[in-house]
Amino acid sequence: MNTQLLLIQVFNGLVNGAFYALLSLGLAVIFGMLRIVNFMHGALYMLGAFTAFALGQAFGLGFWPSLLLAPLLVGALGMLLERTLLSRLYGLDHSYNLLLTFGLTLLTQDLVKQVMLSRFDVSSAPFTPPAALAGVVNLGFVIFPKYRLFVIALALAVCLITWFVIERTRVGATIRAATENPGVTRAFGINVGRWVTGVFGVGVALAGLAGVLAAPIYSVEPYMGAELIITTFAVVVIGGMGSILGSVVTGFAVGVLSAIGAAFYPPIANTLVFILMAVVLLVRPSGLFGLPEGAR
């Protein structure tokens, strides 16, 4: 393989890594702060793409308004679900959360499928990127689509901002206090429930954002998140459950490694991440960036 093709594969891997990073970051935020295994994350990713498509069809909104509104709407739905359903399962075994979110995944996929068939008369639909991001960019060493470069840059910026807010600001300190020691936090007059709901909403909104960004690259269809979420869970495990930095770094790294592996040996493309996960778990069960259980 020549250098040009290898660089193209690296950039394609960074695009996939951008989606892995946003999704695994949302999962890490939710699990790290709330200890909830959200199996619905892939459906929420799909819902972000579908919401952007529906806003365009129903109200004529373009890409830029949808990029802002769709994640907010998906995040609001996530907060509603947390308050009405998930909050009733706190203190119970994690399997209850897993079963509930898995059931909600199936329900969401079927509802979107029915709406797309009955309202828009399609089973899948394209989503046009903005004209400002059409075409390609010559970076000197590689020519690459402008929109895909935008996806990489925006995903990286959002991931870094999220990490900074949680790890380096007063808001992040309050969030960590509210989830790690809610009793003491309430004693200081802080509404813990409101913070928990907000954190869940942010994690869900990140999945919705990934869906909107993915819509112009992949067709919008009800099951677009079904396979992606399995790989995303593997990314979270490799990076370390609940590790914000681990999710971001591992997401981009897995995307690049999978793309390069597929270029040299295509049959390994879908299994490389799971091979990597098995190796990491054998060497470091807490993940690359996760803390050992006794240090939590």
TrEMBL record:
Keywords, alphabetical: Amino-acid transport, Cell membrane, Membrane, Transmembrane, Transmembrane helix, Transport
GO annotation (BP), single: amino acid transport
Topology class, membrane: Multi-pass membrane protein
Compartment(s): Cell membrane
Transmembrane segments: 6-31, 43-74, 124-143, 149-166, 195-217, 271-291
Pfam families in alphabetical order: BPD_transp_2 (PF02653)
GO cellular component: plasma membrane
The keyword Kinase belongs to this UniProt entry's keyword annotation: no
Main localization of the protein described in the UniProt heading: membrane
One Gene Ontology term of the molecular function aspect: transmembrane transporter activity
Annotated InterPro entries: ABC_transp_permease (IPR001851), BCAA_transport_permease (IPR052157)
Family statement: Belongs to the binding-protein-dependent transport system permease family. LivHM subfamily.
Protein name from the UniProt record: ABC-type transporter, integral membrane subunit
Native source species: Deinococcus maricopensis (strain DSM 21211 / LMG 22137 / NRRL B-23946 / LB-34)
